[in-house]
């Protein structure tokens, strides 16, 4: 699968520079500031617009929380591998910085496809672009350690486009609700990535390489990622909802779901181990499933009670997935899922979609009062809650369809021997693509003494 | 003290699942959204309520800062131990996720005890629950390394209840001011934890175990915790104050107190070392005492000048505590205070309570103008500033009483041989409760070569 | 250059305590709360002032992001050195906590020099003080590993004063725009620090010490610093701009500049390595140059298109600087720039100043509408855009002049043999100023076995 050479000397500069130049040209042609970025809102058209009504103050703190999740959260979550920390954090950084630019264009283009006009950018587009980037990074988690950076950039190009198309179908055509992206981000990213890694299957990965595991310190680095994702997930789910009580409620529901999820994660992690010992992989990942599983329903009147039930189930499903389903996927279906994204994003994403559809059934005046239209703008006497629930269910099917088919096609594109992919024995190893420094001096001294001894013996 | 088995195979799942199920049921029965979470405020009753007046926008950024302090701040501060990083971060995570749920219920119940009705949740309840959680984590710092996770969950159940009762007495019955929790959070958490660790005294801890210390990298991990606590303490103290100038002032005062505290910490750390070398334990902990010591007075007109004096003193006291009082507590009073919470939270908390009482004496129209009622709603011509100061002083006594007595009782409850507590030789060791991965490959190779040699020698 | 003794036993306590006492006295004499901190705005003078109009809500989230950049960002960015992590994070902490207090006084004094009256403090002064601190920490990066903490505190005293004078000349006298500090913070801090390290030149540094390099884990710690700087740079550049659309636009432009910069950094890092391997030094530093280079122009109508071009160039220049200019500076000009601040802050800062001057040329009604006065308050028919651009250019010259001359003078002050500076062989070594714990137990065991063996051999 890999070409003879893994050198990035020309491949990576060409890819990065070509992509960035294209992005810059397209931004020059097609993008302009949104009204309350350019100042038109405040200065030209509407003299009663106050500064504090600028979208910036409603959304920028949430944006920054999401931004931390994308770069620190995803980046450090993947540093658990013992010799792949540079790549985990570093390629996460590269792919994210690229994806958010492309996503701005593609999402913006689809947004203006009906109305025409230029692509408007502002804090909302920044959040939406980060969301799309999150989906790409989920897929990155599935193929982590087995791909070159150019391969990843190529995957990102296709995935950003497919993500945006799927998102457009769900939110604009089917009128589905999915503020936190149970379907658009998590389900899509996970199943897309799983198909890519399926096509890129490496039969000799296990035999040739023992670096697909953690060491003590790398697991603690990974907990930095976990905790930032966990803490800021309420901001993630609520970042793009309507202002006021809806944003407030979305954050609150997510907070309870995550708390309940954490307890079920610890419970099932201990229960499934023969000695009752906790497994860091579960804690690092499954405790987050509560955020994923509330990605659709968090803005609805699901109540803290409902949120906690969903979170509890999500944690349990996710731990069981790591224990039983991941080995099954690898041995039977030849799906090598490095970070277990199926357990953190795949199954909890589907659960979230189902919970969203069920919760939509209660979308009535009785539960929402005059706020009903704010959450479900399409619901009327002609389009009842059950119809909304149906659209939610159809949205899940559409998402799975596009993710699975898209992932297979993109997988084959990524199989071309042009990307400098690592050989099986080079997987999970930073040294292929990075200048890696030596060990701490004390260890070097030990090693030096040791080799001195050995040469002594030889003499 | 420990039962023969430390297995968490059944204990932890039973505890987590039972507690979570009870929480979920109680949330289902007793909890509902606050007005500006459900949308009632915006949509039903009051058409002039603007989105930007939603409590969410006043408090959510502060809440997220507090949240980071609880999960990253406390969690990483305790990773200084060389082989207890998984437990420090991981059990901190578990206990916090549990405590914030229980705290919501208990604090909410006491809040509605007069008025009746359901418990209302929103961003304010989230902050208050995190505050209570902070107090539990302070106690966790005192017993760190010597307790099982089930023991910790049990402690949390009792401590959350006692914390909430004490907080209710102080804030609702005695009308004390304590926005940043010098008394309710820090003094309470520290002395409660010190009593628990006193009852759980392990006479052979020092002889059998040398892991109660740091290594180079673990001290750098701990600095992540320190710095997040330090940076976000202004948000912590101001998170729950009234809006506007009071919140602004609280953050500002805390910022100056911490800055001055840092300089005195470095000064005294160098001064107390024979070679003038700085001690990481002091930097990691004492530099934070300035935030603790302003927990009561930060919202008052203490001025930057006063804040800096308090911060300077707090840093000095805290370093002196680590140098002289912690060894005394351990050798004479049999109080084994793993993280030195007496120095970071205990003494600075008492200092903060005293500073609060003294600053209250200046609670006059002259200093506060029309803002007096906002800070001290009870002060009138019949209830002068001196009466407020008296209430502050009484509050400190009440807090110490409940913490000391409560800690002793809970300590004895935790002594029961049912929790799977570690033996003395298992303390400060992740391997008891966690699947711990091996060392980095390079070290393994060294070790392998070594053992090869040894077997060679044996032959 | 170093005195015989490096002991901080008396030096550091005397310096810290003396400085803090002076600060406290000056704060007591000269500082008072700003209007919306004391509550005068809300309660006394203006009954229509709403809480949500308090400056706190516009700026505090940005302030906290800046605060994280100062303490975690700068602090961890410098932990890349293998045995200097305590000092990097710890002295960064000390110097920052000191500098922000002094900066409040000096900036505040210059601010009131025309109008008289006391120095007002609030969230704006907090941000401005953190900005000045950032400049000091840039200089700290140039001399990192080669100076004592007392030397650093001394440098900070002078640099804070010179920074504030330069800032006052630029912003108040020359009416230059520089919201994100391309000139005031980055150019000033870099060239000041480079001159200091030039005067403190150590000819034998390379021969005697091999610790001026990273190890695997220290590079991952450094990435924490990098990513926080990268993520929060939009907050940095926009923290102190006018409210509303300007703040919104500044954050947005910076976001795009950084994204483009990241791709060019990866491209040039791979291109300049013979095997096409990425260099962590480039990723950690050059990817941030896009934020520096937009420090002046980000609030202007530079558009995302323009921002991305600037970011792309900045990344390229910075990587080229690390590869070619830093070795040249060291070998030919005797400037030992530990962190390469010339590449991250120096050249990109100058680029940012030039971009700002050029962008100012388009400061017309046509581009800005009624918002023109908000961004460029001085521009009128008598003072056209070209005059503004001229002032921007003059500002760069003034900044370079003060930084270079000031740096040389302060360098000679720091050469006095009274600070306990380390000898050449003690550079980049925590053990000189810190109690450093041993290695992890496993390594100790290895070492113990080893030394046992050796003594066996001796027998």
TrEMBL record, chains A, B, C:
Gene Ontology terms describing biological process: ammonium homeostasis
Presence of the UniProt keyword Transport in the record: yes
One Gene Ontology MF term: ammonium channel activity
Family annotation (InterPro entries): Ammonium/urea_transptr, NH4_transpt_AmtB-like_dom, RhesusRHD
Primary localisation category: membrane
Cellular compartment(s): Cell membrane
Topology of the protein relative to the lipid bilayer: Multi-pass membrane protein
Claim: DNA repair is one of the keywords in the record: no
Transmembrane segments: 12-31, 66-86, 93-114, 152-174, 180-201, 213-233, 253-273, 308-325, 346-363, 393-414
A single Gene Ontology CC term: plasma membrane
Keyword terms: Ammonia transport, Cell membrane, Glycoprotein, Membrane, Transmembrane, Transmembrane helix, Transport
Ammonium transporter AmtB-like domain: residues covered: 53-418
Biological role: Functions as an ammonia transporter. May play a role in the elimination of ammonia in the gill.
Annotated family: Belongs to the ammonium transporter (TC 2.A.49) family. Rh subfamily.
Name this protein carries in UniProt: Ammonium transporter AmtB-like domain-containing protein
Organism, scientific name: Electrophorus electricus
């Amino acid at each position: 699968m890999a070409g003879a050479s893994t050198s990035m000397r020309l491949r990576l500069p060409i890819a990065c520079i070509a992509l960035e130049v294209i992005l810059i040209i397209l931004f020059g042609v097609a993008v302009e500031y949104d009204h309350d970025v350019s100042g038109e809102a405040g200065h030209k058209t509407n003299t009663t617009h106050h500064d504090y009504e600028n979208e910036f103050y409603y959304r920028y703190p949430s944006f920054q929380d999401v931004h931390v999740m994308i770069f620190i959260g995803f980046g450090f979550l993947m540093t658990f591998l013992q010799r792949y920390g540079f790549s985990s954090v570093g390629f996460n950084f590269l792919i994210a910085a690229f994806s958010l630019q492309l996503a701005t264009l593609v999402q913006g283009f689809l947004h203006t496809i009906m109305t025409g006009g230029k692509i408007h950018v502002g804090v909302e587009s920044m959040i939406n672009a980060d969301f799309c980037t999150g989906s790409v990074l989920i897929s990155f988690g599935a193929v982590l350690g087995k791909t070159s950076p150019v391969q990843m950039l190529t995957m990102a190009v296709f995935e950003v486009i497919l993500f945006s198309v799927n998102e457009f179908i769900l939110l604009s055509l089917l009128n589905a609700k999915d503020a936190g992206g149970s379907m658009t981000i998590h389900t899509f990213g996970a199943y897309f990535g799983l198909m890519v890694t399926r096509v890129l299957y490496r039969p000799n990965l296990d035999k040739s390489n023992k670096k697909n595991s953690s060491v003590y310190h790398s697991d603690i680095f990974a907990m930095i990622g976990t905790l930032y994702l966990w803490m800021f997930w309420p901001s993630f789910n609520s970042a793009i909802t309507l202002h006021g009580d809806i944003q407030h409620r979305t954050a609150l529901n997510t907070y309870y779901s995550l708390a309940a999820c954490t307890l079920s994660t610890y419970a099932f992690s201990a229960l499934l181990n023969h000695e009752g010992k906790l497994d860091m992989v579960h804690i690092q990942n499954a405790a987050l499933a509560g955020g994923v599983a509330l990605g659709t329903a968090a803005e609805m009147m699901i109540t803290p009670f409902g949120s906690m039930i969903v979170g509890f189930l999500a944690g349990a499903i996710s731990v069981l997935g790591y224990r039983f389903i991941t080995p099954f996927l690898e041995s039977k279906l030849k799906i090598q899922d490095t970070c277990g994204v199926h357990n953190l994003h795949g199954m909890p994403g589907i659960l979230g979609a189902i919970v969203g559809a069920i919760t939509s059934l209660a979308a009535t005046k009785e539960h929402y009062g005059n706020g009903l239209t704010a959450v479900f703008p399409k619901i009327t006497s002609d389009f009842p809650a059950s119809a909304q629930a149906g659209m939610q269910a159809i949205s899940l099917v559409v998402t799975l369809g596009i993710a699975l088919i898209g992932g297979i096609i993109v997988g084959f594109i990524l199989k071309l021997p042009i990307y400098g992919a690592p050989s099986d024995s080079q997987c999970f190893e930073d040294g292929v693509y990075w200048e890696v420094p030596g060990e701490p001096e004390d260890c070097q001294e030990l090693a030096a003494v040791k080799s001195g001894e050995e040469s002594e013996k030889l003499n």
